[in-house]
Amino acid sequence: MSAPLSAAQVVASELSIAPARVAAVEALLGDGATIPFIARYRKEQTGEMDEVVLRAVHDALARFAALDARRTAVLKSLAERDLLTDDLRQQIATAPTLAELEDVYLPYRPKRVTRATKARERGLEPLAALLLRDPDARPAEVAAASVDPERGVNTVDDALAGARDIIAEVIAEDRQTRSELRDCFGRQSVIASARSRRQKDNPRADVYRDYFAWSEPASRVRSHRVLAMLRGEREGFLVVHVAPPADAALAIVRRRWVGGRAERGLQMELAAADSYERLLLPSLETERKNELAAAAADAAAGVFAANLRDLLLAPPLGAKRVLAVDPGFRTGCKVVCLDEHGGL
């Protein structure tokens, strides 16, 4: 098993910076140094990094720390329940993002009572496993053996419905399926908003009237629109959805799970559609919304910073000549003289 990469190695690879420089920044931040202090007084340790690069390193280290903390919690949870294997430990150690780490953990996460849980309690897991394993299975025939009125499985249809619930959960927890769908959500999602019916008579909703029937590709949506739509949703005036075309998403699930004899294919088709609509879509939609919200917040902060920079760099005294002194006790004072036009 290969040793896990350190925070400095991961961040260095992500930002194309020498690992030793990242390690130096990590140590300085760990000692409580601020980014402005490091940029000004520790240039020899960081390789002349400016505040922009230092901020990128700081944020990447924070993301790694969050991932590492979650990784530790997942390992502890699995170990406490005697579920941790060498292969699972390796998958957890090499998961590059929080989303992919959660995909690894999903099948082992302690579950609330679900439709699949109830189906397993009624003894329908062997039937589901058979339908998953055997493309030539005859569902009606094999389901007959699972009919058990004492367990609440009164008919063949009851047995097949329970087996589909289990299969839907298996599909929703499959890493490959989630990975392909996540890529689809990233490339093809449309963000759409509509007026909430519960607030249709509230005059305050008119603040968001531009978004009562709005849709556009999520990959091109402007940050201020994302923030406005999500704010309207939080306040209860809008309903916002982010998803790719249903046909495109379902095609991914069908390609991986549906096939075999016609009767078996029908059961798998029903389970696949249910898995996507009931389990995968809500999960991945929330994930994509959070990504859009984070990107929009970063973009808004960038606009604010640029505007503030212009204000701070505006001539404070108007068209006046200025002599500026930067005091320095160790290296001496720096002096600059600007004319009324800002020239040296």
* Rg value: 28 Å
Q: How much of the sequence is in beta strands?
A: 5-15%
Strand order of the largest sheet: 2-1-3
The CATH architecture of the largest domain can be named as Orthogonal Bundle
Number of strands: 5
Q: Which word captures the global form? A: elongated
What is the CATH C level class of the largest domain, in words?
Mainly Alpha
Can you give the mean pLDDT?
93
Structural overview:
Helices cover 60% and strands 8% of the residues. The model has no long low-confidence stretch (mean pLDDT 93). Helix 9 crosses helix 11. The chain has a three-stranded antiparallel β-sheet. Strands 4-5 form a two-stranded antiparallel ribbon. 25% of the residues are buried. With 344 residues, it is mostly helical. It folds into four domains: 102 residues, RuvA domain 2-like (Arc Repressor Mutant, subunit A, Orthogonal Bundle); 96 residues, Tex N-terminal region-like (Orthogonal Bundle); 54 residues, no CATH class; 29 residues, no CATH class. Strand 4 and strand 5 form a beta hairpin. It contains 15 helices and five strands. The longest helix is centred in the last third of the chain and has 52 residues.
Q: Which helices and strands occur, and which strands form pairs?
A:
Elements: H1 7-15, H2 19-30, H3 35-41, H4 43-46, H5 51-80, H6 86-94, H7 98-105, H8 115-121, H9 125-133, H10 139-144, H11 156-172, H12 175-188, E1 190-195, E2 213-217, H13 223-234, E3 238-243, H14 246-257, H15 262-313, E4 322-326, E5 334-338
Antiparallel strand pairs: 1-2, 1-3, 4-5
Helix pairs in contact: 1-2, 1-5, 2-5, 3-5, 8-11, 9-11, 11-15, 12-14, 12-15, 13-15, 14-15
